Amino acid sequence: MTASKISLNEQKTVVGYTKMIGIFLYGGFGIVGVVLGFFLPQIAAWALTLPWVPFRGILKLINSFQGFWPTIVLAVIGLLAGLVFAYIVVKESLILTITNQEVQLEKDEYKQTIALKDIDTVFLDGKQLVMLDKSGYELVREQSDESAIKISNAFQKHGYPWSSEGDPFKDEYRRWVLDTPDISPSANALMRAREMALEKKEKEDIRDFRNELAKLGYIVRDEKTRQYWRKVHKDIQNH
């Protein structure tokens, strides 16, 4: 892993959130929020004509907001809700900056830079971008909503070892079950804690427990709340 920065003069490919996409998201969700807020009383009135619609008390309350100022207030609330939703979308977006020497990943407050020389395989596992080193250790596993073609083209353009066949170790994964004798007691405890974090969707704990398992030599992938693991036979303390 390297701490070098990408030169502004160096050819690079950016995949993910950009300023133009940000303008589109904030503008689009903001406008949708204003429109929904402005017409919310009318929408509530229409919903009340449907006998099967629940929460009729709340709908009647919303429908009571008639007149100029109540409508303006609802439109402003809709605008704020739209901007908050756009912020969440942007915050959860993965940004890749790829050059011929390194790839930089940014997501929320997380940032990581990996040199091309340290990467042996790059592939997509569903919607997750994965990078492996020569030993099979996972350097990166991050969710991306970009198209597979856009991601693969960007990496191949800069000479990265892209695997169109997916994970070369996919046949080594086994589903984890509680207290499986095939892994250590400490790894079992971490897997159990991580399973609970997956059920509660606690993203920081999910990441932290994955990293702790990696230190013990176990690589983990998920299918919803199901965990699958494989063993890496090397000292990974320096990662």
Summarize the biggest pleated sheet: 4 strands, antiparallel
Pick out the low-confidence regions: 1-9
Number of domains: 3
First and last CA, distance: 8 Å
> Portion of residues in helices?
40-55%
Q: Helix- and strand-based class?
A: alpha+beta
Give a verbal description of the structure.
The chain is of the alpha+beta class and 239 residues long. It folds into three domains: 15-92; 100-163, Signal recognition particle alu RNA binding heterodimer, srp9/1 (2-Layer Sandwich), CATH 3.30.720; 172-234, no CATH class. The chain contains seven helices and ten strands. Helix 1 runs antiparallel to helix 4, helix 2 crosses helix 3 (56-63) and helix 6 runs antiparallel to helix 7. Residues 1-9 have low confidence and may be disordered.
Which helices and strands appear, and what pairs or packs with what?
Blueprint: E1 13-15, H1 19-38, H2 40-48, H3 56-63, H4 68-91, E2 95-98, E3 102-107, E4 110-115, E5 121-125, E6 128-132, E7 138-143, H5 148-157, E8 174-175, H6 185-200, H7 203-215, E9 218-223, E10 226-231
Antiparallel strand pairs: 1-2, 2-3, 3-4, 5-6, 6-7, 8-10, 9-10
Helix pairs in contact: 1-4, 2-3, 6-7
Keywords: Membrane, Transmembrane, Transmembrane helix
Protein name: 50S ribosomal protein L29
Domain Cysteinyl-tRNA ligase anticodon binding: 180-230
Brief overview:
By secondary structure, the chain is α+β, with helices and mostly antiparallel strands. The chain contains seven helices and ten strands. Keywords: Membrane, Transmembrane, Transmembrane helix.
